[in-house]
Design a protein that fits this description.
Oligomer: single chain
Shape: globular
Number of strands: 5
Helix content: 25-40%
Number of helices: 5
Largest sheet: 5 strands, antiparallel
């Protein structure tokens, strides 16, 4: 990702901050517990999970964004599709209808994902337009 796309990603994240004003501004340190959650979904019907605000393995990118809420992201675009200077927003937007080998990681912060009282940060990895891993940070 070049500096132009990095700045676009930062500028694009600013509107999300207005909805996150009650979130703590601490960053997990190296000693933070990291838990990888991998499970195969029972089916592809994730409506109930989206309504509850819970991201699940196998969800498409749109379902994950809707369920997870505000996020930051990192995009490594598939250069064979997007070239060198890909717009990360276009890469994300294309993954539902035209998934490719781009790697996308969203970081969400909510209390719903793990059913806890306080909000927890977690990272969701997208490959071929689907959630392949959920990592608690």
């Amino acid at each position: 990702m070049n500096i132009k796309n990095t700045l676009l990603a930062i500028i694009g994240f600013i509107p999300f901050l207005s909805g996150c004003s009650n979130l703590p501004l601490e960053v997990p340190n190296q000693n933070s517990e990291v838990v990888e959650v991998r499970a195969e979904p029972a089916n592809d019907n994730f409506e109930a999970s989206v309504a509850r605000g819970v991201v699940e393995i196998g969800m498409d990118i749109e379902q994950a964004i809707t369920a997870g809420g505000s996020f930051s992201f990192v995009v490594s675009a598939d250069e064979s599709v997007w070239g060198e200077d890909a717009n990360p927003y276009r890469v994300i937007g294309a993954q539902k209808s035209n998934p490719d080998n781009s790697r996308i990681k969203f970081t969400f912060h909510n209390s719903r994902q793990f059913g806890e009282e306080k909000s927890v940060s977690f990272q969701v990895e997208i490959k071929l337009g689907k959630v392949v891993s959920i990592t608690r940070l």
